[in-house]
Amino acid sequence: MKEFNVGLLGFGTIGAGVIRVFQNNAEVMEQRLGARLTLKRVADLDITTDRGVKVDAGVLTTDAMQVLTDPEIDVVIELIGGYEPARSFVLKAIEQGKHVVTANKALLAKHGEEILSAAAAKGVDVMFEASVGGGIPVLSAIKENLCANNFRCIFGILNGTCNYILTRMTNEGADFASVLKDAQAKGYAEADPTFDVEGVDTAHKLAILVSLCFGTRIDLENISIEGISKITPLDIQFAKEFGYKIKLLAIGKRENGQVEARVHPTMIPVNYPLADVDGVFNAVRLVGDFVGPVMLYGQGAGMDATASAVMGDVMAISRNQLAGGGRRTPAMGYLPEAMVKLPVKPMRDIVSQYYLRFTALDKPGVVAKISGILGRYGIGIASMIQPERKQREAVPIVIMTHEATEAVINDALAEIDQLDVVREPSHFIRIESEME
Amino acid sequence: MKEFNVGLLGFGTIGAGVIRVFQNNAEVMEQRLGARLTLKRVADLDITTDRGVKVDAGVLTTDAMQVLTDPEIDVVIELIGGYEPARSFVLKAIEQGKHVVTANKALLAKHGEEILSAAAAKGVDVMFEASVGGGIPVLSAIKENLCANNFRCIFGILNGTCNYILTRMTNEGADFASVLKDAQAKGYAEADPTFDVEGVDTAHKLAILVSLCFGTRIDLENISIEGISKITPLDIQFAKEFGYKIKLLAIGKRENGQVEARVHPTMIPVNYPLADVDGVFNAVRLVGDFVGPVMLYGQGAGMDATASAVMGDVMAISRNQLAGGGRRTPAMGYLPEAMVKLPVKPMRDIVSQYYLRFTALDKPGVVAKISGILGRYGIGIASMIQPERKQREAVPIVIMTHEATEAVINDALAEIDQLDVVREPSHFIRIESEME
Questions:
Q1: Chain A: residue nearest B271 by CA?
Q2: Which positions 170-209 of A are in contact with B (Cβ < 8 Å)?
Q3: Residue B15 marked as a ligand binder
Q4: Between residues 312 and 341 of chain B, which touch chain A (CB distance below 8 Å)?
Q5: Minimal Cβ distance to A292: which of B135, B149, B288
Q6: Tens-digit pLDDT string for chain B (436 aa)
Q7: How far apart are CA B284 and CA B132, in angstroms?
């Protein structure tokens, strides 16, 4: 029986998950592949910490080169994370003619072109299903099954930490800071949570989805990013009253030769399937011109789910080799020469419905003043509530608008914030209630 | 540029959808494939009816042999449906060395082994993503990305007609017969709806999913099938009161060397993502040992969504050829020689929670009698309601049970139905509230 040798760089949490797949599921992989997958070598600077899996001493090494230069190793799995030495190791593996599987979205977002060009020159496969949505087979769905579609839009809940925090804020009425603290204690959030809660991780993943769906290269700095740290229990409460949930959404759209690419807290109707994606789960809703809406849901992180995606890629590479040819599907879904660089629509041009929250004195005429300004800017009001009465004190006034451009919303809010009855800067959250 | 020629058998609704993909999305397919796909010939007995798409007269033919024996045609798409002549045409295409794409689950359920063996002998690919879940990329997800998992269970909403009817019954409180009649008028249900509403179509699809997930062959007659025609507005109303929705679920499980394969109306908690799959949408929830739960959602039927899946398969076959080798992934997910035939667990051995509805006289001691019998059979009661009071008349009594085997439930209900206070045969619906 044909055998493929695999080398693993990085014996952390996901690395341990990958080792467990080799140990537990060798039989089913062989029955599905018709070849044997062998984990030949595992490299990590720390090979003494107990990760809950037993690895033969002969397999472990502290020297990555023992993986990268072993001529018997066919596939290298990179699970180190970060930019360096991950980048150098991946390039070295490619140079040595090895196929590469990685879950490293930061590496792909920053050095993707360099890595994919090197792989093309050398004729090896680079796969990265685990980099977006963890165990959810979303990249393959786009590149393979749905590839006869022109995609119209992408809506993703792509960061488990944010979704866990928002879910608990929603269920418990708790505030961001206290839930974050508890999430950190439970291991659902990093000690420095910025990368997750400020939406950067979600943006890295959106960049990959936008490229795969729309065939366009996109720079991270062209993605508008807003995290969840400013969401208050009050906003969540009002959302509920209007029939919405707040989720951190990655949104990608293509229309008239432009793309939208943005990450921000978003209100979505409670009866939408995406609204029920709670806790650490992730989901992606894609809309293609023929398939219509498709939603893929599952665990976006965690050692086992991520290991499932990594090993799916290892199996795909092995199948390519068995069938007689690799590089079967372009890494970014389109041939490199067909990729374009579409302009990214500035945020001020995007069109959305908005949730507006004002903090204004409770006295006659205030609502008329605010709605008068909105009216002058041509912003239609879908509904309005002022739930509290506290004469001559500041109370929240919430207005749900019809569609408007963000430029107009910004201008109207700036003018409203000048009113002497308005006591705090006004606040808005975008609403997505179409998703088609 | 390399070109692949495609022949289409069957110019019905889905056929027209496929033609539209060729007409509208030639560019994106070329950019993703690096080759040109050409629809060389379309065969149908009726080539005069207007299907809303324009096809060159030279492409249309009434003679299927002009597709099947044209040496320039690489891939044949079979969209005739049914057993014959679909089976003969598919076998002929294979004999002529052509790859085949089909959406015909009935054909696969009945003649799958014959067709796949012929394809193996001839070295061609047979793909059928559109046969289950329409546009949802579920078969590929199992065969490709999730293939390092041992699957534990499958839960599927796989028939749009049933889901449409149940959704309207739920939203409107209407009864089965009137919604069915309206669904027929609107074209969402066939004139003879038996195949859909009695669960046979769902069972065909479950048979394919069980084979792909568990690596076991399963005969249709070993699948327990119960449709939705006996579901009443009363059951739907009670389900709602207990926090459940009723869906026609396809359920597959593997445990201890046995499989479960059954299709029946099922109560699922309203806050589960599957509960929000409404109208003609389909969804599949799969649970793998590493990936955990994954849900895939989309349009399970319709000309465009199905055409998307068909063309995804055509692209996959073309990519195999461009990369230098077909037959990359086993058609049933496992190598044929690794497929087994696991015993199917008899229904009396399945374990579930149950919704029990009794129709009994409203008089003191009735609930005690019923619950006494349940208690003697060791059936735990989770909750009970008797919402109406109509002294000395028959009223519904509903009991939600803890887990019990179906054998015990059947025996207990038989005994309860002997009580003189019980006025109609008792009725049960299975509950799935774990799905892991």
A1: A276
A2: none
A3: yes
A4: 312, 314-316, 319-320, 322-330, 333-335, 338
A5: B135
A6: 899 999 999 999 999 999 999 999 999 999 999 999 999 999 999 989 999 999 998 999 999 999 999 999 999 999 999 999 999 999 999 999 999 999 999 899 889 999 999 999 999 999 999 999 999 999 999 999 999 999 999 999 999 999 999 999 999 999 999 999 999 998 888 899 999 999 999 999 999 999 999 999 999 999 999 999 999 999 999 999 999 999 999 999 999 999 999 999 999 999 888 998 999 999 999 999 999 999 999 999 889 999 999 999 999 999 999 998 889 999 999 999 999 999 999 999 999 999 999 999 998 899 999 999 999 999 999 999 988 778 778 999 999 999 999 999 999 999 999 999 999 999 999 999 888 8
A7: 10
Residues B78 and B184 in one domain: no
Rounded distance, CA B164 to CA B159, Å?
9
Going by the DSSP 8-state scheme, the letter that residue A343 receives in this structure is P
Cβ of A327 within 8 Å of Cβ of B329? The answer is: no
Q: Count contacts between A and B (CB, < 8 Å).
A: 235
Contact B316 A24 (CB under 8 A): no
The two structure tokens encoding residue B69: 């024996």
A145 vs B contacts (CB less than 8 Å): 129, 137, 140, 309, 312, 316
Show the domain range for B248. Answer: 138-299
The CATH number of whichever domain residue A167 belongs to comes to 3.30.360.10
Domain-located, residue A364: yes
B366 plus B384 within the same structural domain: yes
Q: Look up the ipTM and state it.
A: 0.95
Q: Which amino acid is at B33?
A: L
Q: B267 and B396: one domain?
A: no
Are B227 and B165 in a shared domain? yes
CATH, residue A382:
3.30.70.260
Contact A129 B149 (CB under 8 A): no
Measured CA distances, A207 to A248, A250, A261, A350, B342 (Å): 15, 9, 8, 18, 44
Angle between helices A26-33 and A303-323 (to 10 degrees): 30
For B78-90, the DSSP string reads E---SSTTHHHHH
Claim to verify: residue A78 and residue A130 sit in the same structural domain: yes
Number of separate domains in chain B: 3
Instruction: Look up tokens 């579930």; give the residue.
Output: B352
Same domain, A274 and A324: no
| CA–CA separation, B178 and B174 (whole Å) | 7
Half-sphere exposure of B126 (CA within 13 A, CB side): 32
The dihedral sign for the CA sequence B88, B94, B96, B98: positive
> Closest chain B residue to A334 measured between Cα atoms?
B32
B7 is in an annotated binding site: no
* In a shared domain, residues B223 and B325: no
Read off the amino acid at residue B297: Y
Q: Is B160 on the interface with A (CB under 8 A)?
A: no
Question: Is residue B190 part of an annotated ligand binding site?
Answer: yes
**Are B294 and A298 a contacting pair at CB < 8 A?**
yes
Instruction: Give the residue carrying structure tokens 């980048």.
Output: A87
CA angle, A165 as apex, A159 and A166 as ends, to 5°?
90
3-state secondary structure of A106: helix
Catalytic pick from B40, B98, B143, B205? B205
d(CA B168, CA B163): 8
A91 is in an annotated binding site: no
Helices (H), A198-300: 200-214, 233-241
Give catalytic status of residue A253 as yes or no: no
**Together in a domain, A149 and A272:** yes
Residue A314: alpha-carbon gap to chain centroid: 22
Whether B311 and A290 lie within 8 Å, measured CB to CB: yes
> Nearest-CA neighbor of B352 among B432, B257, B410, B428?
B432
| Rounded Cα distance, A152 and A33, in Å | 35
